[in-house]
Every structure is written in C-alpha cells, then in structure tokens.
Amino acid sequence: MDWIKSYFNYYFKREVVIVNNGETNKIEENIEDSFTIINNNNNGANINNNDNNEGGIKIIVSFDGGGMRGIVSILLLKEIQNILGFDIGTNCDIVCGTSTGGIVTYAKLFNVDNDEILRLYCEFGKKIFPSSSMGIMYNVYEESTLCSTKELISTLETNFKGKIMSDRKGFVVTVAQDKITAEKSVKIFANYENPLTHLHDDDKTSVVDIIRSTAGIPGLFHLYENDKFIYYDGGFQYNCNLPIALIEASTLFPNATKLLFISIGTGYAKNDSTNYYCSNDLTDDRVEEYLNQCKQQQQPLILKETDDIKLKLKLKNQMLGGIYDLIKNLYNLYRNYVNMTDTYVVLQEFLKDHQLDDHIFTYRFDVPLEYDISLRDSSIKAEQEMQRSVYDYVNSTPSFKRSISNIKKLIELNNNK
C-alpha cells in the first residue's frame, strides 16, 4: 500500500481518497484534480474474480447517458442479443455507464433482461419526465424541479432495493462537488475493489443513491448529497466513459490478451452525423486479421502451461515497474479528457489514441435520429422515432451485422481457449 501512495504522490500530484469503513484518508493535500473510486458492495458478495490475472479476452460494455434516449441503448442491446444469441450486458467482465446509462448498468448487474428494462424505462419515464405542461407545472409546484425526484427514487427502490447483485464488475460515473472548496471531481461508484489502488467499499451509499448521483441534473432533479459532496450527472465530464473504462480494465486485467470495448450510445440528431458518426470498419479489419492469425497458428489464446509459468515469473519480476509505467501513461491520457464534455469529442479522442492499439478492440454502436430528441422527451412520438431509427440502423447498415459477427467469433475463440 505504501508504494502506491508514494507513486501517486510522485507522478500524479493529485488527491487519491481511500474510503475504508467510513474513514477517509487523503494521500495528498495539494491537488491539481481528483479522481476517486468509491466502491460499493451492498450485498457483501465476493466481487473479486479469481481470474483477474489470467489472459484471454476481457469484455467491457459501456453505456452513454442520454435521459429518455436510453431507449436507444436498450433497443441496440436487444438487436445485438438477437444476433449473438445471448445478452452481452450480462456476459461481460465489466459493465459501466454514465447518467441514465448507469440505470442500464445496474439493471444488468441485477440480471434484468432487456425486454423488462425497456418496459420499465418507458413506464417510469413518463412519470419522471412528464411531456405535458400540466405535468411539469405539477412537479415545479410539488418538488420545485422540472422532473419528479420522488418518482425516480420510488422507481429505483422498487426495482433495485434488496435484490442480489451478480458477481460481474460494474461502475457508474458521477461528478462530485466539494461542499467546502466547491471544486468538482470525477468519481466512480463501483461494486468491487480495484486491486491496484486498494480502494475499499463505501457501505453507506445505497444503489438508489448511486444511480441518483450519476443521473443528477440540476433543475431536473433534487441532487443527491452527503456530508462532503453534492453529486452531479456524470455526463458533465464523461457522458462517454471509455477513458475511465480503459483505466479500470487495464489495471484489473493486466494480463489480458485483448480488451474488447463495446460502447453503446443513445442516438444523435442526423444534422450532427459529421461529428457523431463512428465507423467500425477499421476495428473489423483488425479483428478479422487477428482471427485469421489465430486460425493459422492453431494455438489457443493462452500460452502452454510451461510457457505460462515462465511468463508469470517474468511478469512478477517486472510488475512493479510495469505497473508504474501503466498507471502513468493511463493517467496522462485520462487528464486529456477531463474537460471534454461533449460525447463525440471524448469518443473521437479516445479512438484517435487507442483504435490502433494492439491489445484493444473498440466497437461503437449509435444511431442517427431524424430530429434532436430531448433527454426528457417521454412522448410517444419520440419513442417511435427511436424504435424506427434503431430498426433502420440495424437493417440498413451492413457493417452492423459484420461487427456483431466478429464480436461473436472473438467470444467463441475466448471460450474455447
């Protein structure tokens, strides 16, 4: 633990907060920014898998925020499941989300199927995000907010409280404002401990409050707060959370053969296609080349036992220096994204930095919408437009089926290791 403290002090010049049984210890007082991971495991389950140090392909599924446009994410999940034959949201190593993507994330951690999520989303969306002027006026009168915080809390408690969480790793992104200094920092609420940073559970934070923290938009809802922080929607800094997902996956699975990122958006207006459109062609080319190499070599993804032992001994000797370099590089990349609030800016920068990385495959699925749908638009018209747009995207985009087919082949290859 001491070497981690000194390392963070030396390289990062920032605050790392350790939350341990309610006690908070600061590693450094003079900070440039804060990046705190708060772990949450309300069920007391053993979340740390035993295969973290093994090789193979690790799958990370990431959900953007977007309010009611989260319907797009759920519909895309359903279409991906139809081709794969299984739900990628419940068959991955890490599932993560921002804002309403955090709701989908926790639904997957509780093994809620996509049809049920879609039904719940549409049902409670109409209560939380009223489309009529009378509904908005009622919320303003009753709660002094445009949307119903009471309905949000009630719905979350009904659907998540008391349920048993799966052993998959998951996290959501939020932005916390210090009540004393007013400084804002990115935080992660997770259901696991990161073995590298040894950050411990925050047992005081419930799943309901975690989701409120990642989806807290001032004016729309009453914000969740505790003694030290006021929590804002994570989308203010990381609506697309791929950079954080990379940091988490790289430190949790340092020996992974490949990191497979599947990023799912919430739709964008057609007029913004120039900025938001993201082709998977380059990733597909790289994946197909990799699959062909594996086929030609006729070798499993994991080395033979004797070679594997030698490699582990070598890694053990090099681990300290390797971890130093890894975190230093990842943190430098992370800092570049901190002020990029637009989803497409973060996404494009991430792809520019990592699309050609040998150990990373990144897929992005998102659909153009005929018009710009507001994040609180719960109207039938908006719902129908999202359904139509996803249908058109899936059935008129040849690369979609190509990409899902390649993802399926990677998973099958990994399962047959």
TrEMBL record:
One of its GO terms (molecular function) is calcium-independent phospholipase A2 activity. Gene3D superfamilies: Cytosolic phospholipase A2 catalytic domain. The keyword Lipid metabolism applies. The active site is at S99, D233. A motif (DGA/G) lies at residues 233-235. This is PNPLA domain-containing protein. Keywords: Hydrolase, Lipid degradation, Lipid metabolism. Pfam families: Patatin. InterPro entries: Acyl_Trfase/lysoPLipase, PNPLA_dom. GO terms for cellular component: membrane. It comes from the Eukaryota. Coiled coil: none annotated. The lineage of its organism: Eukaryota, Amoebozoa, Evosea, Eumycetozoa, Dictyostelia. A motif (GXGXXG) lies at residues 65-70. Residues 61-248 form the PNPLA domain. GO terms for biological process: arachidonate metabolic process; lipid catabolic process. A motif (GXSXG) lies at residues 97-101. PROSITE patterns: PNPLA.
